[in-house]
Write a structure and sequence with these properties.
Length: about 475
Amino acid sequence: MKNKSRFPPTMKNLIRYALSKDGVAVLRKGSGQHAIFTQGIMDDFFDVTKRKMEVTDLNLDIANMMLSRWKRLGMDSKALGYRLRWFIERNSIAAQLGWTTADDFSSITIVRTTDWRQSRSNVPTPDLRAVKKSSAAKAGMPLIDYFETHYRPARLVGKSPRTATLYRQVIAAFAKYLGRAPLVADLNPKTVPDWLQWLLDNTELAAATVEKDRTHICALWTFAAKKGWLAEFPDIRPIPCPERVPDAWTDDELLRLFRACQSARGRIGKVKANQYWPALLSVIYDTGERIGAVLEIRRDDIDAQGWLTVRGEHRKGKTRDKRFKLRPETIERVEAIRVFAQERVFEWPYSDGYLWTKFGKILEAAGLPNNRRSKLHKIRRTTASNFEAAGGNATALLDHQHRRTTKRYLDPRVVKETQPADILPGIGELAKAILDGNENNDRMVSEFRAFLEAKQARNQSDRN
């Protein structure tokens, strides 16, 4: 890439330029205030990566990483918008100068731009006059406040932060339907069922997702009813959810996926993406563990003999530790992404949602489906299916309490489940074999032969 500027390609020199109204990079007359703003961003970048920011860091991945960090620190949307605009403008200028490649930042959203309330009428606030005076104050409490001050301290002690996040998401979804902040009194036999049915009829959410919402909202409702704040308990039947056939990656698909990981561009924090993704996939494949637990693995969880201990506090249910033997090549890949003073093996500096976005791009690069069932959990199903097919116990591997849970992970194509086409004769094949005198001397053949002879005798009798 040819440098089109008389200055070396550094962040300090990039401050000399601005975008004109036509979007063209031009030398700016003064840069005092802009230099202060830029220095603040560069200082924050150094705090995260422990290195100075370079022009090549003006890309989508770094922007996502920094915006996620600023969001976690509580920065408001206006300030976030300024910083996103800074990344977009700096990248455009650097690309015009030949210092880096142009990137597309359109996938980053700071605030929701559509008003979901335009497509429906607001649900009126429930009448609290029908509630007992002693409970009216509680029933009129905002549902999110009730969750944070009453339900969470009593029911979610020891649960992961992710569990609390799921409850907040359900309350937010309920608010979207109501067109206002929900109250405890909205947990009633009219409003909640109407909301669940509306989700099934008017959204593209899967039945399993709506069932999850039903479970969470009914848990909040039951707790309030037990406290005496609501007169009625929930009595909503579970939503029928079709059970999907488990699917695993074939060997060819897994190889294509791994090659796409090796060709990934950019960095994940301080690590090259084409080293990060192969190491991550190798650990998941060797262990069959969930992505949440794998991201929490620390360097001292892997011993000198190549045994990995996944800590129980990071595993689903938080019940117990699990130990796995890693392949030598997996250990090599994990060592290749070692970063000084970084405890976690797979440090993910972006938002949780961005993990699925990035992995989705790798799936597309591999020519594989990019949907919910093709994400990292499919590698867990692949490991379980291959382990079972090789004679192992997938229930013990996945640490399931019930075999029926494991069956949802086992691809019948891999575990070689016996199918009707494998053992039953084809249509007309058995009858032909009997009439030709090539039948086997088993009970089924004998009974079928007797059936044919009796049928022939009846047909002959009918003709006579």
